[in-house]
Amino acid sequence: MQYNTDLQYNKEVTLTGTYTKSTLVKRGMAGHSGHYKIVINNYMEVNLLPPYHKESVRPEEEVEKFEGKKVAVTGIITQTTAFSEPSLEDQPLTVNIPCFITIKSIRLAEE
């Protein structure tokens, strides 16, 4: 079975997946951090904003509306998730999980 995991990076895209808690954890933090992702299939997930963005901790109303449901997210994605903001002096620690760096909209996906 072949899965389509070809994503278009650094361009606006709309991806459909299940709105789920992200397991990204900052050092010294216990419990869920408030970060979320969409799970597209068994092999692909995309984080909703890098953890250093204050907006990466998703609003409670959004979580109540979408958690566990199939959603369509529109925004720009990158190939990795950075844990800190890139600078000229330092490259951030990253993980090889795609990440929305902007989110234009999140809505329930049509079945």
List keywords for this structure.
111 residues, mainly beta, two-stranded antiparallel ribbon, 1 helix, 6% helix
Give, in spatial order, the strands making up the sheet with the most strands: 1-2-3-7-4
Please write the string of helix (H) and strand (E) elements: EEEHEEEE
* Residue share in β-strands: 35-45%
Largest sheet: 5 strands, mixed, barrel
Shape: globular
Based on secondary structure, the structural category is mainly beta
- Mean pLDDT, rounded to whole units? 85
Number of helices: 1
| Unreliable sequence segments | none
> In total, how many beta strands?
7
Helix content: under 10%
Radius of gyration, Cα only, in angstroms? 14 Å
- Cα end-to-end separation: 22 Å
Question: Explain this structure to me?
Answer:
The protein is mainly β. The protein is built from 1 helix and 7 strands; from the N terminus they run βββαββββ. The strands form 2 sheets. Strands 1-2-3-7-4 form a 5-stranded mixed β-barrel. Strands 5-6 form a two-stranded antiparallel ribbon. A hairpin with a 2-residue loop joins β2 and β3. It is globular, with a radius of gyration of 14 Å. The model has no long low-confidence stretch (mean pLDDT 85).
Short description:
The chain is mainly β and 111 residues long. It has one helix spanning 60-66; strands at residues 12-21, 36-41, 44-48, 70-78, 81-82, 94-95, 99-108.
Secondary-structure blueprint of this entry?
Blueprint: E1 12-21, E2 36-41, E3 44-48, H1 60-66, E4 70-78, E5 81-82, E6 94-95, E7 99-108
Parallel strand pairs: 3-7
Antiparallel strand pairs: 1-2, 1-4, 2-3, 4-7, 5-6
